[in-house]
Design goal:
By secondary structure, this protein is of the alpha/beta class. It has 9 helices and 19 strands. It is about 30% helix and about 25% strand. The structure holds flavin-adenine dinucleotide.
Length: about 350
C-alpha cells in the first residue's frame, strides 16, 4: 500500500478544488484521499447552475433540482427562437445541495485551506505541505497547480456576472443583443423562487454591472447580490507534468453556451476512474496520464465546432446568427445535432451514448 510507505501526512491522492470537477473526481476514489478547497463545500456559487436534468439525476443528487425547463428561448432584437427541450429537459439546481450531495458520496478527507501551488512534488497550502503520488488540479480557471504565465484573464477566458432577482418565471432564456453586451450573451434562468439574470462576455470584459442594471431597469426589478468570475473557452492541457487537470482548470467549459458543469463532471468522472486504476496498481501513473489525455483528445473536434459558433455569435451581425439559430432549431436540422449536444457527457450505463 502506498500510504504505508509514506510519512503520516501523505496521501494516496490529493484533489485541489471541491466544486463540480473536484467532487466528480473524488467520488470515484477509494483509499487515503485529501480533498482541498479554500471555501466550505457549496458555500461560494459562481454558476447559474443550469444543466440537463439527467446530470443531477445520474449523480444521485436530484433533490438539489429547483426547476425543470422544457424549452429555451433565444431572444435577439429581431426575432425570438424557441427550442423544444422536452427530449432532453434542462434544470436549474441549488449549488450547495448539489455539492454537499456529492461530498456525501466521497470517502476523502476534506480540508478547508488555500492552496498556493506545487513545489518539489508537494502541494503547498496555508496548513502546510502535503504529498501524494497522484495530484489533481480542479481549482477552476486559476489553475493553481497547472497554470502558467499565459493565464492572463481575458486571453482565452470569458467572464460571467449574474444576480438573483425576484423576476417570476419567464422561461430559460438567452439574450443576444449587441446593445446589451457587444461580444457575449445574456441569460435569464428561473430558479424556482425568482430568476438569475446575468451577462457573459466572450472577450473577458468584467465590468458588466452597468449593463445588467440597465436590463433590470427594463424589467422594473431590483438586483440582489452579484457573483461572477472568469471561465475558459478553449481546451487547455489536461495533464501538466504528473498533475491531472479537470474542469475549468483544463479549459473544459463548452464554448458558446458556457456550459461548464457537465464537462467538469464528465471529465472528472473519467479522470477519477483512471486515478483509481492507478491506485489499484492496474495502471502506471504514466499510462494513466496518457489514457486521460486520450479521453480528452477524443472531444477536440466538438470543442472546435463550438468555438467556431462562439466566434460567429461574437463577430458576425446578430441577425445572421439569429437566422442560424432559427434554422438549427428546425426539426430536420435539430435532429442532427441536438441529441449529440444534449446527451454529451451522459454516463454510458444510463442508457445513452456519450457523443464525441
Ligand atoms: C456567472 C456564471 C454563470 C455560469 N452558469 C453556468 C450554467 O448555468 N451552467 C453551466 O454548465 N456552467 C455555467 N458556468 C460555468 C461553470 O460555472 C464552470 O465551468 C464550472 O463551475 C467549472 O467547474 P470547476 O469545478 O472546474 O471549477 P469551479 O466551479 O470554479 O471550482 C473551483 C474550486 O476550486 C477552489 N479553489 C480555487 N482556487 C483555490 C485555491 N487557491 N486553494 C483552494 N481552493 C481553490 C474554489 O474555491 C472552487 O471551489 C457559469 C459561469 C459563470 C461565471
Amino acid at each position: 500500500m502506498l500510504c504505508e510507505r509514506m510519512p503520516a501526512r501523505d496521501y494516496d491522492a490529493i484533489v485541489v478544488g471541491a466544486s463540480f470537477a473536484g467532487l466528480a473526481v473524488a467520488r470515484e476514489l477509494r483509499g487515503n484521499v485529501l480533498l482541498l478547497d479554500r471555501n466550505e463545500v457549496g458555500a461560494v456559487q459562481t454558476s447559474a447552475c443550469g444543466t440537463p436534468l439527467w446530470v443531477p439525476e445520474s449523480l444521485g443528487v436530484a433533490s438539489s433540482v429547483l426547476q425543470v425547463h422544457d424549452r429555451l428561448m433565444i431572444r435577439t432584437p429581431t426575432r425570438t427562437v424557441c427550442y423544444d427541450l422536452s427530449s432532453v429537459p434542462f434544470c436549474t439546481f441549488d449549488y450547495r445541495a448539489f455539492c454537499q450531495g456529492l461530498l456525501a458520496q466521497c470517502g476523502a478527507r476534506f480540508l478547508r485551506t488555500s492552496v498556493s501551488g506545487i513545489e518539489d512534488g508537494a502541494v503547498v497550502t496555508a496548513e502546510g505541505r502535503f504529498t501524494a503520488p497522484i495530484v489533481v488540479d480542479a481549482s477552476g480557471w486559476r489553475r493553481i497547480l497547472t497554470g502558467g504565465s499565459l493565464d492572463q484573464p481575458g486571453a482565452r477566458h470569458s467572464f460571467g456576472l449574474e444576480t438573483h432577482t425576484e423576476l417570476r418565471d419567464e422561461g430559460l432564456t438567452f439574450l443576444l443583443d449587441r446593445r446589451l453586451i457587444p461580444q457575449g450573451l445574456g441569460w435569464i434562468f428561473p430558479v424556482g423562487r425568482g430568476s438569475l439574470i446575468g451577462l457573459g462576455s466572450y472577450v473577458g470584459r468584467s465590468k458588466l454591472n452597468p449593463a445588467i442594471e440597465g436590463l433590470l431597469r427594463e424589467h422594473g426589478i431590483a438586483s440582489g447580490s452579484y457573483h461572477g468570475t472568469y471561465f475558459p473557452h478553449r481546451l487547455l492541457p489536461p495533464t501538466v507534468d504528473r498533475v491531472f487537470a479537470v474542469g475549468d482548470a483544463a479549459g473544459q467549459c463548452l464554448p458558446l453556451t458556457a456550459e461548464g458543469i457537465r464537462p467538469a463532471v464528465f471529465f472528472g468522472g473519467e479522470c477519477g476512474r483512471i486515478v483509481q486504476q492507478i491506485l489499484d496498481g492496474a495502471l502506471s501513473l504514466e499510462t494513466g496520464l496518457e489514457r486521460y489525455r486520450r479521453v480528452v483528445a477524443a472531444y477536440h473536434r466538438p470543442y472546435r465546432l463550438l468555438q467556431f459558433a462562439q466566434w460567429m455569435a461574437a463577430s458576425t451581425p446578430t441577425r445572421w446568427f439569429a437566422m442560424v439559430t432559427q434554422v438549427a432549431a428546425m426539426r430536420p436540422f435539430r435532429a442532427g445535432w441536438w441529441p449529440r449536444y444534449g446527451w454529451f457527457g451522459r454516463p454510458p450505463h444510463s442508457g445513452a451514448v456519450v457523443a464525441a
